[in-house]
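Q: I have 734 residues here and want to know how they pack in 3D. Can you give me a structure?
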Amino acid sequence: MTSSVDSIRKWKQPNIYDRLRGAVSVPITLQRPSIHLYESPYPLCTTPLSAFANRLYQDIFLKYHLQKGRDVQFIPQWQQYSSDIENEISQQLGRTNSNNNRLASEYQKVRPKIIRELVSVRQEELKNLGIFADWEQGEAVTNQRDHAKIITNFGRLVKADYVSQSRSLICWCCGCSTVRKENEQVVNENESISGHVCFPIHQGLEQFGVKVDLAVWVSELWQLVGCVAICVDPTEQYFSVQHSDRCLIIPQSLLNLDMFSIVPNGELLPVSVDEILASTCIHPISETNVEITESTKKQPDRISILVPGHVKIDYQLAQEKGLPVLCVLQEDGRLANSTSQINQLSIRAANTAILDNLNRQSANLNLKPNLVEKKHCQFCDQPTVYRPIKEWVWDWSEKDNNEQTLAKLSPVQWEKASEPSGLSPLPISNRHYGCIPIPIFRCRKCGQDICDTDALKLVRDLISRRGTDVWFSLGTEEMIPGNMSCPTCQNSIFKKEFNFFDGQFANLSLQQTRLQNLDKEKKIQLVYFYEKIRENNYNGLSKNQLFFQQLFKTGLATHKRSPLAEVLLLGQQCKSIALDFCPKLLLSQYSPDIVRLALLILLTSQDRMDLALKQAQADYHIVSKWLSAILSCQNSKALQKKNGPLLTVIDSAYEANDFSSVLRHIRHLANSSQKRFGPALVVSILQRIAPLMPFLAEQVYSDFKASTNNHTTLIADSIFLTHWFDVNENENSK
């Protein structure tokens, strides 16, 4: 048999997929709907194994139905707005921490080239796996008209009052000056200065002396300047102890420290929690009064600073208690504080300055540097921090798109998941330069952010004609309506807010637009791979499931209807897919047919990739050995009727999208003793093997053509271009 490399080369030359669609599109669409395979956009910088598995499932569906004479279109969908692409652009520009309009404009100019390069690499991987697709349309990069449509969808959400502004504590990379999501971070060790600091008591606890301090735990020294309160645990026991020339109030847990272990028990005086809460501290750096509050959510064995501007649990406590959220860290990682010693210093330099200040006041009890695990940006390897950031979000649960509405309009019964990610508000704004700027203006007088529908329409029209660069090149007064004024203070002078659409929202809005455009064609049947959650395993929605639900809800919010009402759902109960196997590495070690079988086995009946590969190799060996035996008997005209029912069973499994059963039936057929078939039946068997193992089927068909004299049956260039033989036709040809 010829090699699979020859088969890949052969497929690329005649463009079999386009020829198949061209042969069936004209007559069939008059009787049957044209099938459109649709998918959630996949990353461009790396291909997850799950993407190969899901696309393989779609490809088997596509190949079978195309052979049967049904038009099936598949255009690969890619995430055109993601932090990975932004990082690629940053590397080419050689700049990551500049925050100005010029850099953002450069991002927009470089983005199309980067995307085309990445798409080319990803599509080549799919071709090597034997995937059929409309590669030309799959290379399309969003243009200024697409950008305008995304703004249009955003404008519809604004007009329908779905959009609101919220302040959230979000992970921020100071090196890249942008938001970082969980999947964009890695955990590495980093130095941190932590320990106990003395907070002088300003009022209260007079019975313990003139100079009384609280021993307060600080986990990150620079965060000391962001402290808005002191947090104590009401269930903990506290004592006063003499230390040097002062009286310290400490929790019981600190008595184990060396500096307090020699204190006689008789010198320990209990201090009630109520007495501590009734006191007021003085901040050792800013010298301002600090409130003392209670909570059991902080570390129970410590008196701790409350830093809601940079600690997640503190942010939640501040929301509950109505405390201010103080952000002391600028976007570039420098501290912004009124205290002159640390103003505009980096975290490292600020730590040194704060430590010197505390030492001068003898307020440093036991601060010391430690190596701790911290989250780092995977792109610049800088530690990420939490910062309070204003963002625009939309929440469908606040309007009429409740669960009852979804149940009535949805083409699929919504799965229940333990994690609320599928129902949480969707962020609209972000700081990623590689996305489309949001037409948001800020009042120069009162600071109110304005999202006016008339201004949105004006900016949308400008971007549609001149591209996104117009947002950076034009002045604010050229981009707002003449009668626009601030609803809070009636001021009419604004500035452009430096915000961009969140990549997830932009991708979702773009897919929504493309689906709505399909409605202009007649008899379109959408097919989507939707994994059902395994029974009693509600660990949250998969990315495909979440995308499906968000796409549906976006359609209801922007167009008042679902774009997926006629969807046919593919997919089975999805097992966990191991991430230890790189798709590129798999294709370098195994033939593409074996990888295809392994992915199918992994998707339907196996949890481990190594076991799936082992089973795939065994199945491939059985089928290829059987087909080789058939070739050695190619002159026989024998045909047994017992094969007809088995081919019918295979067809039924294909029609039911039960591709795991298809593999099982083919394995059963190969294990039979039958090896003598007429040409028509040989071709019909290869046709049914081809969607699963296209390279092997193509090899056998090519060799079979070269070794037989039956030119009436074997005239096509490819097994996929042969006339489909039904079981009845095979029996009539005996």
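Q: Anything worth noting?
A: The chain is about 40% helix and 15% strand. Residues 101-128 form the longest helix (28 residues).
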